[in-house]
TrEMBL record:
<dbReference type="InterPro" id="IPR050763">
    <property type="entry name" value="ABC_transporter_ATP-binding"/>
</dbReference>
<keyword id="KW-0536">Nodulation</keyword>
<keyword id="KW-0067">ATP-binding</keyword>
<keyword id="KW-0472">Membrane</keyword>
<feature type="domain" description="ABC transporter">
    <location>
        <begin position="2"/>
        <end position="232"/>
    </location>
</feature>
<comment type="similarity">
    <text>Belongs to the ABC transporter superfamily.</text>
</comment>
<dbReference type="Pfam" id="PF00005">
    <property type="entry name" value="ABC_tran"/>
</dbReference>
<dbReference type="InterPro" id="IPR003439">
    <property type="entry name" value="ABC_transporter-like_ATP-bd"/>
</dbReference>
<dbReference type="InterPro" id="IPR022467">
    <property type="entry name" value="ABC_transprt_ATP-bd_su_PQQ"/>
</dbReference>
<dbReference type="InterPro" id="IPR003593">
    <property type="entry name" value="AAA+_ATPase"/>
</dbReference>
<dbReference type="GO" id="GO:0005524">
    <property type="term" value="F:ATP binding"/>
</dbReference>
<keyword id="KW-1003">Cell membrane</keyword>
<dbReference type="InterPro" id="IPR027417">
    <property type="entry name" value="P-loop_NTPase"/>
</dbReference>
<keyword id="KW-0813">Transport</keyword>
<dbReference type="InterPro" id="IPR017871">
    <property type="entry name" value="ABC_transporter-like_CS"/>
</dbReference>
<keyword id="KW-0547">Nucleotide-binding</keyword>
<protein>
    <submittedName>
        <fullName>ATP-binding cassette domain-containing protein</fullName>
    </submittedName>
</protein>
């Protein structure tokens, strides 16, 4: 579903991503685990087309991001770390606006909005102003917005920052259910090890390099620790 080859991104003398290679299989939940400054957000900004990589190739569902950007980006849904709802609009109008950007007709947009609101349990909030929602409720709306056009690959960048434990748990449960039941592919960037433990696969990113790649247990052994947390802290202490 996602292929990255030789991806390099620099900010002056700082190399944020250094010849990165990775593949993400369809229908999987992959955690991109790394400390702050590891290059996670830079990777997501390149994958979502906000930055043009200095070097390398990105392919989404067989479409080159460089040569077929519209086709590649149409297969992506993104939830960034920073909240991005228009707080002066209602939830429904936020979702309608995104649907129009994606070229959905009004009738189809309304059908999908209602279905996603029911799926993520915010139907009663559809006509409430976005600014009245809690942090967890806003994240659910952002997740629904990212899924509105039916993407094949969902990018989640530190999506639980600022959420209470229950909201974090619910968000993760909803995404794992999407992987199991709808065949969704999720790339979840986080610095929280307890979120990565639940993933099918863990990629450990540090200073723009992949240190380990595999199921949580295999990554733990590869990095040399009794637990994934201990192994992660040991591998990224410098």
């Amino acid at each position: 579903m996602l292929s990255v080859r030789g991806l390099t991104q620099r900010y002056g003398a700082l190399v944020a991503l250094d010849g990165l290679n990775l593949d993400i299989a369809a229908g999987s939940f992959t955690a991109l685990l790394g400390p702050n400054g590891a290059g996670k957000s830079t990777l997501f900004q390149v994958l979502s087309g906000l930055y043009a990589a200095d070097e390398g190739e990105v392919t989404v569902a067989g479409c080159s991001l460089a040569r077929q950007p519209c086709a590649a980006l149409a297969r992506l849904g993104v939830v960034f770390q920073q909240p991005s709802l228009d707080l002066d609009l209602t939830v429904r109008r936020n979702l309608r606006f995104h649907a129009r950007l994606q070229g959905l007709c009004a009738a189809e947009a309304e059908h999908r909005i209602e279905a996603l609101a029911e799926r993520f349990r915010f139907t009663v909030l559809l006509d409430a102003a976005a600014r009245t929602l809690s942090g967890g409720q806003r994240r659910k709306v952002e997740l629904a917005r990212a899924l509105l056009h039916g993407p094949a690959l969902l990018l989640m960048d530190e999506a639980t920052v600022g959420l209470d434990p229950r909201s974090r748990q619910e968000l993760l449960a909803d995404l794992h259910a999407g992987v199991r039941e709808q065949g969704l592919t999720v790339l979840w960037a986080t610095h929280l090890v307890d979120e990565a433990v639940q993933a099918d696969r863990v990629l450990v990113l540090h200073h723009g390099h992949l240190l380990a790649d595999g199921p949580p247990e295999a990554v733990t052994q590869r990095l040399g620790g009794q637990t994934l947390e201990a192994a992660f802290l040991r591998a990224t202490q410098h």
